[in-house]
Amino acid sequence: MSSEVRWTGRISNPLMGWGVTALVGVLTCVTLFANQFARPEKQMQPGEVPYFVGLMALVMLVVWSVSTLKVEVRTEGFFITFGYFGWPKQKIDWQNVAKVQALLVRPTEWGGWGYRWVPWKKATAAVLRKGEGLRFDFANGKVFVITIDGANEALEAIRSVLDELPPENL
User: Fold this and answer.
1) Cβ pair 128, 82 in contact under 8 A
2) What pTM, to 2 d.p., does this model score?
3) What is the predicted pLDDT for the residue at 156?
4) Which of 54, 82, 56, 57 is nearest to 70 (CA)?
């Protein structure tokens, strides 16, 4: 079966992307400035500063890169790409899906914004804001939730793909 795209959606959270990135940048600058006035035994050593700046740059890059999502409903699965560079990628195979539903996603139920692992729910979630989303229940009891604009349209596309699959693929 060829991979036909049935539906595409995109969501981003500018506050998470640019706001958190700017906040981490400002906190990095404040920390480096305050470090100059700390007691000598509390100061970062000159060799430690590049590691600190590098770590903060990595944090900013990770937060910025996961502040946008693109999803595609294809005949071979549900594809999620994170960030502006399309990496990392995640694929949900249709044969693993037991149930899909549209729902209202609240970040507080999933531990906040971002990609979340919630072990007591046996779930992971990609939550960029409060609003409409999709919930995938898998045959193994695990759950995946994602916020996405046009969740009902995506659900219709998913159902049309699932209806066309042969019974042995479900």
Assistant:
1) no
2) 0.79
3) 97
4) 82
Distance CA 119, CA 50 (A): 35
Q: How many CB atoms lie within 10 A of CB 41?
A: 5
First to last CA, the chain: 15
pLDDT attached to residue 170: 53
Most confident segment among 2-6, 41-45, 75-79: 75-79
CA pair distance 134, 11, nearest whole angstrom: 13
Residue 130's contacts (CB-CB under 8 Å, 6 or more residues apart) are 104, 105, 106, 107, 147
- Any idea how long the chain is? 170
pLDDT at 9 over 90: yes
Kindly give, in sequence order, each residue whose CB lies less than 8 Å from that of residue 169, ignoring residues fewer than 6 positions away: 94, 95
Q: What CA–CA distances, in Å, run from 6 to 33, 65, 153?
A: 52, 25, 10
